[in-house]
Amino acid sequence: MGEQTEFEPGDKAPNPGVYVEVSEARSFHTQIQNPKRVTLERGETFPETSNKDRKWKKAEKARVH
């Protein structure tokens, strides 16, 4: 089983780092403009996203189009 890469609001950060909002739909047309960015330490709770269809992902693992 692999490491979890996407997180929901309320989940705990597995590692320290910068996390960004990503869309659940991986389409080019649904690319997020100005996504929220948060810096978390291990064990801190992810905040709410801008809408219910988004998740958090570590910045260096987020896809860039």
Can you put this structure into words, describing what you see?
With 65 residues, the chain is an all-beta fold. It has one domain (6-61). 0% of the residues lie in helices and 28% in strands. The chain is built from no helices and 4 strands. It has strands spanning 6-7, 17-23, 37-40, 54-58. The radius of gyration is 11 Å and the shape is globular. It starts with 5 loop residues before the first strand and ends in a 7-residue tail after the last strand. The mean pLDDT is 85.
Helix-strand layout with pairing:
Blueprint: E1 6-7, E2 17-23, E3 37-40, E4 54-58
Antiparallel strand pairs: 1-4, 2-3, 2-4
Short description:
The chain has 65 residues and is an all-beta fold.
Largest sheet: 4 strands, antiparallel
Secondary structure: number of strands: 4
Runs with pLDDT <50, length 5+?
none
Strand order of the largest sheet: 1-4-2-3
